[in-house]
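# step 3/5: fold
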Amino acid sequence: MKALHEKNELLFAILWIVVYCAVTVPIRGACGDESLAMLVGLSAIAAGILVFIKTSHLEGKYGLVKWRGSAGDYLFFLPMFLLMTGNLWGGIGMAYRGSAQLFAVLSMFLVGLIEELIFRGFLFRALLKKDPAPEAIAISAVSFGIGHIVNLLTGQGGMESLVQVLFAIAWGFLFTFVFYKSGSLWVCIAVHGLVDVFSKFSVPSSRSESVYVAATILVCAAYCLYLSRRPPALERSHP
């Protein structure tokens, strides 16, 4: 892994995306998010990524550091925290019972951790090495969104998957902007993880879901516009 990372960071990022999908998609389709198998699979992926970053001393490069500047510089991340609660706008309930709910909650938080490190960490940093920042941000965000199309393979409906792709693209732009401007992934990891966790406590409602998706797109666009005016913490590096 280390040799591949040193030789080709983009291929390294793509390989981790493939591994992530290859492990989680079959388990989700066969066992569900609430299964012990999903928790074990995600734990193994998260451990592999974190061990690589730690042993390679790449915490700073991949955002496992405190953000630069004061929280006020980023409006105290309030737009993110507001949208984070969106899955609860239609009411609060339990998706599963007993240990299944616990497994689902832990798995969803690991999904947030892994996807941030893969898409904002590995992929975005690899793109930023060779592309201008606007292109790197767009590719990272859109790739993250399109990646959710794999939910079709787990039995999810086509229209539901399309809405989820648009929703994820909006979040992808927001998370990438925050990482690019602050140099830290910690807030993104926490918010992403809780968005996914709260999905397991939501009460299904087509109206609240529509409002949430629309609010996410609008708020993400406004917040990204604000952040675009701030100096970046991450500079483009050349090979």
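# step 4/5: annotate
The mean pLDDT is 93.
# step 5/5: archive (pending)
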